[in-house]
Every structure is written in C-alpha cells, then in structure tokens.
Amino acid sequence: MDAAGDQDIKLQRSSPDRIAELRRSLPRFLWKSKATGEGAPPVTRVRTLVLKSKTERLINLLEPFQEWPQLLDPHLVDILQPLVSAFIEYLFNHKSKYRQNVDKPVSSKIIPLPRAICKIIYTLCKVRGQKVITQFLDNDPHNLEPMLDALEQWSQAEDPGVGSTCTNQAMVWEERFVMLLWLSHLMLAPFELVSLASQSPGINPDATTSLRIGFHKKTPPIAKRLVNVADHYLGFASKEREAAAVLLSRLALRKDMRKIELQMTLVNCALLILDRSHSKAAPLPTYALIGILSFLAKIIISAENEVRKPLLAPIYKSVQHALADDSPFHKELNSSAMARKLIIKIRRALIVAGIEIDAKNPRSPSCVGEDALEEVIDEMLTALADKDTSVRIAASKALSVIAVPLKFEMVAQIVEPILEKLREDMVWTWSEQHEVQSIGWPDLAAHGINSPPELPAHWEQSLAQVNPMSWHGLVLTLSQLLFRGSMPKYLIDTVLKTLDLALHFEQRTSLGVSIGTNVRDAACFGLWSLARRYKTADLKADSDLTFQVLANELVVAATLDSAGNIRRGASAALQELIGRHPGEIRHGIRVVQVVDYHAVALRSHAMLEVARSASKIDKVYWHALLNGLLDWRGVGSPDPQSRRHAAEAIGSLAAIDALTSVHDTIKIVRDRLRKTSSYKIEVRHGLILALGEVALAGAKFYFEMDVHGSVHTNDQILEFGSHLAVQTAELWTAYCTDRPEVKDGRADDAIQFFYLDSMLRSGLMCEAVCSLISALAWITSTFSLVPVKELIARVEDMHVCVRALERSLEKTDPDVLQASAQTAESLFRLLDQHTQTQLVSKWAQRLHPTTPKTPDGSKAGATMALVAVFQQVGDMELSAPSGPAIRAMFQDFSIDPGNVLMPPLRVLILHILLEQLNYPVTSIELRCTTLKSLTSGVLESECAYLFTWIPRELILLVITADLSNALEVCLADYTIDQRGDVGSLVRIEAIKAVATVLRKNLVSLRNRKTLAAKICGLAVEKLDKVRWRAWNCLQPNWGVFGLGLRPQVIIADIAQTSTTDYFKQLISLCDQGWIQVPLLEGFITSAGAGSESVLQASRTAFVAYTNDRSLVALSMYCTTIVDFVHDNHSNDRLLLPAMDFLGFLFDAGVLPRLANEMFGWKRLFNVIQATQLNSINIHKIEAAVKIYVGLAGMASLPKIKSVALKKLYQMLIHRYPKIRNVVADALFILTQDEELLGVNWSKPQKDLEIVILRIKEKLQAEDRQHLLD
C-alpha cells in the first residue's frame, strides 16, 4: 500500500524552516534577559523552569528528521552548543533550584530546565545516534564532580505519591540517560581521577541488584562514586542501563584505574553473579543481568589486547556455563531476547579477540579455548533461526565478523551449511494430469537429480514450506559475508542465485499479512554488498547469472514491491550495480535516473509512473516488469488497491508498443487466468482487471492512430484494428455469455459467466467483471470503424451482463459501486430501449420511499446507476414504445407528465435524487452518495440545462423549485451519532454541489442569495474542514453574491481559516441584512463551542469589529443572539454556544456598552431564566450563571441588577453542589458578603439548612424593601 506520503521529500523541503525555527527558539527557551538600567545592556541568565509545552514543541521540530538524519549534520553545533552551555551554567549556579515550585498547582505544566535539555538531547541521540551527539558534549574535567553531584542529589527524591499532582520530584529516564552518557564521555578526558577531591558519600546501590564490589584501598573516592552510580543504574529497564554500562566500562579501562586493576575487580564481580546458578541468594531481575552482560560486552570490545587477554577465558567459561545450565536462574536469562543478543555479542568479541591474540602467538595455547571457535560458530548457526529478529541479526553479524580473519577454506565451512539449510524445506511443484505434484530437496536424488541445473524446465520452485525466520537469518548472514568481502569466490555463483531467489521470497499468514519482507530486505543488502565489494571480472568469471538478469530483478523489486524499504533497497543496489560495473547493463545511466531512490518511495507512483518509464528504455525491462506485474507483487498483491494499480500498469505497458504488445499481453493474461485456481479470488480479480485495462489501451491506441494520424502504414493500422476486433469479440464470448467456447473438454479461461452466481458472491469479482464489461462495451459502442459489432453478433442476449451488473449494484463497497456505475453507463448504450426502460424502472423502484427493506447499499448502487445513465435517457419520449412504462413510473412517483418540459426520464431521475435528499430517514452515507452523484453526474454534465431549446427562465424555475430546497436541507444537516458530527459529511458534499450550481449559474437570484447566506454561515462554523470547504465555495463567488469585487483577505490554507483576520472579514458581512442571521448562527458555534484557537480568533474578531460599529448595530447583533437562545431552547447545538458567547460578551465589556441603549435587558433575563429553569444540564446552568453575573454587574441598571442578584441568591440552594460552589464564588466577588465564606457548599442540602434559611430571610427582606421603594 502507499505510504502516507513521500515523507523524506516533504522533510527535505521543510527542513530549512524547521531548523531556522529551532535556532530562533532555543536562545529564548534557555535564557532570559533582565534590564539593568537605562543605557546598560540587559543581563542574560539561564532559566530555571520552562514550559513543558514549549519543550514538546522543540522536540516535535526534531522528530521528523528520523527520516533523514544527515540533514541535521551542518547544524548540530548551533543546536547543541547552547543546550550544553545552558546545562553547565545551571549545574554551577542553580543546581539547588531543581525542585523549586514543585508544590504549586502549575507544576504540572512546567519542568526544570535540565529535564527539558535532556529530553531534547535524547531526541537528537535518537535521530542522529548517540556516538555522533556525544562528540559535541563538553569534556572539561571540572564538570565531572558537579555533574555527578547533581545526578546523585536529583535522583535521591522519592517518587510522587498516588494522589500527588507534582511531576517534578523524581528525575525522568531521559535525564539519567543523558547525564550518564555525559559522565561516560568525561571518562575519555586525560586526567587523573585522584586529582578530584570528593567528599560526598554518593549513591548506595540496591543490594539485590548490585555487583557488591570490594574496592582497592587506593581507589579514588570519585571513582567509587562513579562505580556506585553506574552499578545503581545497571539494573534499570530503560535506556540509562546502556549508558551506565558504557560509563562503567570506560571508567574501568582508564589508565589510572587499570593500575589498581579495577577492570579485573568489576569483571570478577560480574562473573560471580553469572555463575551463581545454585546460590541460595535471591535471583537477580532480568534487566540487572542484561546490564551485567552489557558491561561485559563493552569491556571486551573496548579493551586493548593486553587488558582483555586474561579476561577472555573466564568470561567465555561463564557464558558457556550460563547457556548450558538448566537452573531456573539461567533459564530466565536465556528466555530474554536482549540477553541472548548480548551473549552473542560477547562471544563474537571473545572469538575475534582470541583469534587476533593467538595470531600473534601461534605457538601458545588458545587464550579462549581449543574448541571455542567451532562451538561458537555451531551455536551461531542455530541462532540464525531464533524467533526474535534482533537475535538473528546479531548472530548473522557475529558470523560475518568472525569470518573476516579466517581463511577462505574455513569460511566455506560456514557458508556450505548455510546453503544446505536454505535447501532443507524447498519444494518443486509441477502439474501432471491436472494434479499438482511436489518433491522436496532430499528426495531429488531418488529421481536421478543431483543438482538444481538438472531440474526439468516445467518444475516450479516453491518456498511455501520454508521457515521465514530461518531464511531471514541465513540470507542475512550471506549478505553480511559479502559486505565484509569474506565470501570465497567459487561460492559466489551459488550465493548469488540464492539471493536472487530470496529477492522473490514471500509468505503470507492466514490473514494475508506478509512475513517475507525481512528476507527480501536481506537479499537487497546482499546484492548491494556484492556489487560494491567484488570486481566485474570476478563476478563474470565465477557466476552464470548475468548482470542484466540481476538488473532486471532489481528494477522489478524497486518498482513493484509492496514494502517501501525493499523498493528503496533494490534501487540502491541497482545504483551500485550500474555504477560499479559500467557497460554491463543496458542503458544503465537512464535506468538509474528513472528508478531513483526517491522516485520509488510511493508505491502507486513507482508502479504506475516509474515502471512505465523504465519499460520504455528497453524491451528487456518491459518483459521483466510485465512478468512482475502478473506475479504476487502485482495482480497477486493482497491489497485490492495495489491490484488495481497493477492492472492499470499492465495496461500502460501494453500501450507502449501497442501495435504488437496489446495482442501479446491479452494472450499472456488470458493464459495466466486459465491456469489460476478458482479459489484464488484476489489473483483472478487482478487478472480480469488487467484484461479490461489492456483492451482499453489497445482501443485508445487505435483511436489515436485513426483520428490523429500515425507513423504506421494504413495496412498496419487496419491489421491492428482487425486483431483488436477479433480479440474483443473473443473476450465478449469468453466472459460475457453463458455459452463459453469449449476446448479440449474444458471451458476457455475457466471463468465464464456460466458460474456467474457463485463467482459474483465476492465483491472483488463483481468489480473485476464489471470493469471488463465496461471496457468491452465502451470499445464496442465507440469504434464503428472496427467490425466489432459484426463479430459479436453471436452474442444475442446481453442478459448475462445485465445480471452481473445487477448483482454488483447490490454490493456496499465504494470501489465495486464505482465500477458498476461505469458499467451501467457503457453497457446502457448497447441495450435496446425496452431493456433500458426496464432497468431504469427497476432502479427507480429501489429508491421509492415505500419500497420495503431496501438496504442502503442497494440504494446507493441504484442511485449511482441512475446518474450514470442520466445523459443517455434524453431521447426517450412519452410517445415512444416505452412511453407507457415511463408514464407508470411517473405515476408511482406522483409526477404529472403534463407539466414536464424536459426529457421525461431525466425529470424522473432528478426528482428521485432530490426526494432522497429531502427524505428525513435517508442515511448519511446514502445522502452523501446522492449528493456526489448529483454533482458529478447531473450538475457537472453537459446536459445540466436538461433541454437546450427551453427558455432560460423556465429552466431556472424548474431547477430552482426543488434543487435549492434540497441543497438548503443538506447544508443544514447536523446529524450526530456515536461517530460524532456525521452531518458534516453531508454539509461538505452539499457545499461542493452549491459551488457547481453557482459556477454554472443554475439558480435564480433569489435562491442564489439564500444559498450564499447558508454558505457564509458554514464558513464561520466551528469545524475546520467545513469552514475551509465553504470558503473555497465563497471566495470565487464573492462578486456573484454581491459582496464586493473580491475579498480583502485571501485565504490559501486551511490553517488560515482559524485566524482573527479570517473571522473579522466574514463577520463584517453582517452589514448585509440578508446574511446576518445565518452568519451569526454559524459564528456562535465557533465563538461559543469551537476549539481553543478558533474560540480565541472568533471572539477577538467580534470584539474588534463591534468596537468600530455603532451601538445600534451592536444592539441588533446581540438581539439576534438572544433570539437564537429563545428559538432553540431544545436545541443544545445552538443554545449552549449562544449562552457561552453571551457570557463572554459580558466579560469582554461588549454588552455593558448597551446599558444606556434600548436593549431588551428584561427579555434577556427572562429568556435565560426560562432556558435554565428545571434543567439538568450542568453546562447550561453554568452558562446561565455567567449571564446572571454579568447582569448583576450592571450598576447603571438597578432593577436588572437586583433581579439578577436575587436569582443568584436563589441558586445558592440549587440541588447540584457544583452549581452552589460556582454561584457562591460569583456572589462573593459581586457583593463581598462575608457570610458566603467559611461555608462548604458541597455538603448536602440538609446540612446547609441554617445557611439556606438565613439566605431566604435575607431575600424576603430585600423583597419587602423593594416593595416599599
């Protein structure tokens, strides 16, 4: 399947902006400036706390560079230098402030600066690799003790409690990882540890996981602290374990530490733990054991020969014991994939070091063991079939590294068992008397076959029974050997053929998931290594497989493979093959330019464009790509969309040299289809699609030659047309009748419609069959110069095709329905008028509101079919032979034939579509399908005016009457279900239809204004995708709507529809009276219920706009909003945003501006009170409280203020505790009433009886005073 997009190309384009933003943001993020006085420069200090959100934003700028890490290389200094400087300054000046402000509520949003810096540095390590990043860390020895002090102090905090909201007390793993990595980097600096005076006691490692080290009396205190810190983190489950192992190994291998034999002490402690299989002590956790193994691996790999020589034998003995022992301790160790990988790494390092040391002292006994090499190689070969990929990769690399110092004779003893293992489960199959026979590799000798070249030509090799994990490890080992140049030359031919076979490796699970990708990836690596490491002469002398054959296979893999890494790996291998071996590949430079590493990133582009371009270069690539497209990578792909692309690619290949290719390709595809089992639905789906594409390619080629002229002679053109006619007739006969030709007792192609009912149960087969029928029908009806109609005269009845179309229209898959609609359009031309009328009647009856239990899928298919034939039913009149049937349909749908001014069936189809849009129970999916069909098949068609000779005024009247009403209904569809606002799908499709209607000017001026007002409201609603689509409709029709010449602010991106300028431009349209109500209706959904950015932008725009308007205009807008509240008391979609927005208008000081104006304050209070009364919606009640608070703050309106205050006091006895708390807080702010303090308003009402009684008395006193006044 296609990836989400060509990510690396997008990254390359956006990387300058990302890096510029990062470099611009880092200084402000790390440092703060403080003015010191006039004329003096500001003082810059490092921050101590930063926002977590800003840290995440910087990390998000770096994350995409994982696709292309090298883009960061020129900028690493500029990025890391300020991070390192700020961290060091914090260590020296602000280390004690690490946990400041952790008890404040805001602490969940802020983090200490070191944590933010470590998160960013870790992200850089993840993107670019820690070996590269550590080069930029400061290695001044003076930083060692402050860094260690900080790590010890910060890590000694207890974790937050269960109920704590503080997240800053304990260090996060990124901090520990980076600081340990930094400490390990400081260990490389040439200085004596004894020169650092250390008084801190340091960390005490956990007794259950520590190495229990006994230090030498001369061990410096700082070294003890470093060992304890590393030992403490060596058993952690996260990344700091790796950094701790690096720190411990580098510390042990320092020159001053070797003098006191710290490395021997640490290794002995580690081995003691590994050997404690029968100890009564509690077993170590798995990750602690992994940490110890990591340390041993690091120290063996990093140490010099003189240091590691005495360590080799004891470490090898301990590791062998750990592998062979059956104790629970060692079983748990061997059950971990990470532990097995580290053991392989340790043994590899031991063997390589032993070989190197023994080579210098050939007369001395082996420092590892006499049989160590054979034992390790044998166990590595077994590990190549391990269930975990990381173990297989480690084993393959280990074997290749061990093979480097060995002689070719000994390497051959490694390679030959690998080749033998690869043949173990191979099977060869062949067909004998219509039955499939098979034979395995061990049984070949019984048939007198001793080597693969002696195999019969008709035998096919099958890898269906081989172990894919074993094959991955084995092939990867061969590739690693080639990469290191260790492969004996006489084995290159066999290895090369194995890699070629592995490049085609594919197995699938019962669910269709591919499990052969890693094998093909290893094969690409091997071919890349082969082309890179070996000379042309050596390969030509030692291999029968030519360079051109390899190039063909790599071109196929690079363009057709389903995995993106395989396509790119094959492209890289092809580039190496052509570049390192010039002159061996046909048109090599052109092939490299076409099959580019970046061009094959997207599978659809690689399959359709790159494959076509490559096949044009030379015929050898054409044949290779055609065979590949007809194999599992193309029409046999498990992904339906890939099979469609493969079929399209086969058609494009056939069109390259259509004069000869079309006929040959059709024969090849039909032959492949004939041999394909009827159970392989996916393959047959792809092959039948390919037949239709090839036939269309040939027809289009003939059309271009016939109409536009050609370089070919007339005889060639006529011969091609004759062949095309014959093959089209054969395809009609073979696939589109129930009387297939029989050859040798078997039906041709074995897929005729004789088995139609069983075959069309699958939606995929429905799609394929319909596509083929559509192609053949289009060719038959289009090319009158080709005697196709005469040749298919024997196809007397088209009922088989019609039946296939009917079955397909019952499916629910969108791709099947789309193919069915195209078939209906093409096939309709070949049918007689009586059959056409019957089909239209049958489809119309499915959509009749009274038709019982018609599935939505069937209705969608009928809708698309009716629209597909819309243009072809224009010549059917009521006076024709089919007139009675048409009149019957009109009667069923209550249409008066006497008032029909247009072609009757077009009127019927349009009426059915509009009725479906207006019908209240129509599902969302069916309504969307109807709108799409209406737009593309009717409104966008050439016959959108339906009858060219009818006066324009009558057309507008006819269309406007129903179409505008239906579109208005769809524009106001706000259906909500468990999926959310699914009505937005209908609104978007309706906006597209309105855009077409306006562009083609299909509605009157009055209806145009109505639709424009609706579109303006949708352009300011809360959903981004709806706003963006509405704006795309509104912007080009700005002048048509009478809104001016053009909009002042041009919006070119969906993100711009969430800006203040956007909302301000549209809210200004309220001056147009006919737009005001729909516009404000949409606007309050954004200003009252939109996302944070939309909420802020829309509210800011409204305040800015109303500040420049008169109070009369403001009063009119606010009255309209109050009307929304009044008119939608049961519609929370508009009611809640409108109430929230009114509350905001009080807070923003907009409504108080109307205090001295004729505004319905009393009506506002009454409307809100009626809405809130007896409501159980907490949101609604809180919104009402905000409005009451705003009214109670109107000092210039004492009556309104008094009524609102009274209402708030009444709500102190509300049944919901949350409302009582909100009201009490608001009243205290308004009145400063001390009685409101010290009361727990969350208590039950019965516990508040005294307070409530006092409040009631106070309210009664205020009522009496009000009456006296």
UniProtKB/TrEMBL annotation:
Boundaries of every Tubulin-folding cofactor D C-terminal domain copy: 1011-1180
Ranges for the HEAT repeats: 376-413
GO BP annotation list: microtubule cytoskeleton organization; post-chaperonin tubulin folding pathway; tubulin complex assembly
GO molecular function: beta-tubulin binding; GTPase activator activity
Domain called Tubulin-folding cofactor D ARM repeats: residue spans: 467-589
A UniProt-annotated Pfam family: ARM_TBCD_2nd
Highest rank taxon of the organism: Eukaryota
Protein name: Tubulin-specific chaperone D
